[in-house]
Write a structure and sequence with these properties.
There is one protein chain. The chain starts with 33 loop residues before the first helix and ends with a helix. Helix 3 crosses helix 4, helix 3 packs antiparallel against helix 5 and helix 5 packs antiparallel against helix 6. The protein is 67% helix and 0% strand. By secondary structure, the chain is mainly α. It has two domains: 37 residues, no CATH class; 111 residues, no CATH class.
Amino acid sequence: MRGVLTSCETEAPVGPKGPPGAPPTETPRREWTDASVAEECACLETQRDEAAVRGDDAEVRRIEARLRLLGCRIAPRGLRGAPASAAQGAYYLATGIWPILHMRSFERVTGPKTDRWLVSTVGVLVSVIGGTLLAAARRDRETREIELLATGSAIGLAVVETVTAVRRRIAPIYLADAALQGVLAAARLVRRARRRRP
């Protein structure tokens, strides 16, 4: 590891600066320890996430090359930077496409439906949201728009399902889904709050 320099590394010169016109003082090579390598890996991973959000694939590849050079462990893209989007997207895609593929089994679990076309419409929309979140997770690009879509969808579904189930217009099973939507939304809000901490 010795002698590997990256954009995350900062090294201070030895001793005070010389007089004007004097040659620059030498900068010592960094002595790599397990702790310093771990710190460097974390710094590069942060830069990698930022580059992925910007859509700068070339920069992502360059940073990943540095991570490999340092021996850092690189998780598969799409599972590292946006695990929340991957989980939420898979759930939305599965539950959204369910009534479209097999309405009878869907009704056996959630109760009979009067307007099946409306159920199918909601299923299509939820499936599209799920597919979008999965695509973002796969490309490791969780932008603010993706975060807003995921959080807003979870909050919206939780509120609608809770209110409608309490009024006994839909089966109580929807309260379980509303609770899960609340967990998804809360997890994202907590994550966002942590990122804003100095």
